[in-house]
User: What shape does this take?
Amino acid sequence: MNPGGAVRAQLAPANTANPAVDIVISAVSDVNLRTVAPGGLMTIYGSNLALLSGNLDGWQDLRIPSALNGSGVEIGGRAAAIMAVDPRFILAQVPVDSTAGTADLVVRNTNGSSPAFRVTVANSAPAIFFDAITADGNRAVAYLVSSGEQITAANPAAGGQVIGVFGTGFGIATPRQRTGEVEFAPGARYPGVRVTVGGQEAREVVTSLIPGYVGFTQTIFQVPANLRGAQALEVEYSGIRSNRTVIYVR
Assistant: This one.
């Protein structure tokens, strides 16, 4: 019709498929961690979960929304806080008022609702974030409290140094947090967390929600002396152990 240069494009067929959930795991991305806890972060994988990808870049409100780009999540009829959506995954915070046991998780978007997916909710399901899978194990996202430097094989921590690791899924904090509420003061804590490094118990300083975020925790502790090389790191809260990760010590 316009041989002089009109732009042409073939329209893609509309996606009208309902969302479907394949698996729900802790947001630390360990596929073995399929139990979630109130206030913790989870990742939902599946198909057609959102029509358009999006996240909260630039978000400035005091509370995370319960829907993003038309997609929302409910657990046991309670709305989750949504942090990122994509056709293949959703990052969300488990509703703080979720009760322990099995519950139906449903994803809803403008196409419709997913079939109910059964998830296990526990009072606590602590998990440590890792950023690399190495021959030594999953490297914990760890840092020196004094400088903020990341702890790696090339930059190990020394015995006696105070370091921090990032986590999620510890459950209800003291004082109690609210679903989607952005933390602005380092006051919400988890008393009684145990930390082991290389099989030795470390002195825990504090485990708390991280100001400025939703659902993220930091556990700060002192590295035991007389350890060298890659060392297994685990945390335990309310009798529940986290996934095993690795930190490096010199």
